[in-house]
Amino acid sequence: MEITYTNNFKEYKTPENLDPFTIAQQQLRHACELLEYDEQIYNALSEPERLIILKFTMRMDNGRLKTFKAFRCQFNSARGPTKGGIIGHPDENSSLIKALAALMTWKCACVDLPLGGAKGGVICNPKEMSNNELERLARLYIRKLSEFIGPRIDIPAPDVYTTPQIMAWMMDEYEVIKGIKAPSVITGKPLELGGSVGRISATARGGTFCIREAIKETDISLKGAKIAIQGFGNAGSHVAEILQDEFGCKIVAASDTKGGIYNKNGFNVHKAIEHKKTTSTIVGLEGTQQISNEDLFELNCDILIPAALENAIIKRNATNIEAKIIVELANGPTTPAADEILFEKDIIVIPDFLCNAGGVTVSYFEMIQGFYLHRWTAQEVDNLLNRIMTKAYKDTILRANLNETNNRMGAYMISVERVVDAMKLRGWI
Ligand code: GLU
After folding, report:
1. Is the CB of 45 inside a 6 Å radius of any atom of ligand 1?
2. Is residue 277 among the annotated active site residues?
3. How many angstroms from the chain centroid is the CA of residue 298?
4. Cβ of residue 236 lying under 6 Å from some atom of ligand 1
């Protein structure tokens, strides 16, 4: 059967199965096989504990009523309260939300946070909504969800197209409903409302700790390393900044939903960020040539960073990738078939739920600060994040090497084993 999949950049026609939850289950099955778990264990792990599907109607600024569909999936809570972001994107669906909630479960376990995994989303396009509409929608979503979330139950956070301001409205709505102050009900809040320093750049920073370790396995030097980044949102723009300013790398290419830019000698990231602020795209940045999102994957570079949406690296483009390291800041950017190709090509893949775990790790710090009504310094946040990410990276590589498997399966083995151990100790299995 031929499946057509729109990944927001380009329509790919491919016989590959790109359904996100099917992919998540395939990967889990593979991990269970490597761990020699039987079908009963796989069955206990492979479906979410709870999937909430909501529908609500809201009056838009133009006076018309609009009905929205929304989700919250709590995938597995054996290790603790469930945690995960809220997406506000027009293309989401329950399969994607379930897949991302599963990934959050493995992500929290991989970096050993005492948390389970969840994900939520509202099908909408925040780019086409006014601030007032966004606030009403955020509050409505939390009103419908308020009995299912809480600082000791399930803690949402930002994700694709959601912001600290949206988290602030959501926290406020929850507190009004419950009649208490509960800053730990949501993370990724503005600093003024109990957000953590370092949260905004945490996903990117966590990824750079992994890059620093990965590069030691190669003959590339960080200074002057050529970087291509797909996606210039929160993760993509922050990783570009850190790699340029602190590591001395050359950002040679980047892209957003409108297209990509390229300069083989590198471009100035701050100018690109400024350009995007004023024109809402990086395309057209002075001194760069325009390329397509597809071209970006096949460029001559040392490090390729998918930092946008799922299914970016598929069978068709994996063969042509020239980078030596792939840094998955996005969730689910690589399909299983592409994974096999990359493994054969000896490309180092830093798998998503390890690579981008910096975000949820600093979210966890934010929860702790919320419980104690206390603030950590930037130094405290960075040091602990560094320690957690570096350990998780080293454990993953060790596990992959021991089992002669790829890094993704190395990370899966660690995480799934931890979740299964917790389920056994609770007497669930
Ligand atoms: N949405 C982010 C992720 O996919 C962060 C989740 C969180 O902070 O809870 O990891």
Report:
1. no
2. no
3. 23
4. no
